[in-house]
Amino acid sequence: xxxxxxxxxxxxxxxxxxxxxxxxxxxxxxxxxxxxxxxxxxxxxxxxxxxxxxxxxxxxxxxxxxxxxxxxxxxxxxxxxxxxxxx
Length: 87
Hints:
Number of strands: 4
Strand content: 15-25%
Order of helices and strands: HEEHEEH
Number of domains: 1
Oligomer: single chain
Radius of gyration: 13 Å
Largest sheet: 4 strands, mixed
Shape: globular
Number of helices: 3
Distance between the termini: 36 Å
């Protein structure tokens, strides 16, 4: 899905957050990890992590299974997408 053509507003972002167990949100060099099985952030907190200044879902946003990754931070991507070591 191309976010430039199909924008996703707050309601869509909150719905997406309700469908996952974890969120990794990168803002600059900081990465915030939420374990939604243990933490129950309020909608304002989720919007602050998921939405950009235009009020749309931040890019890039990836959903892999029940994990949502918002924003880009190279080390986070490397850790989440690392191949298991060969046996």
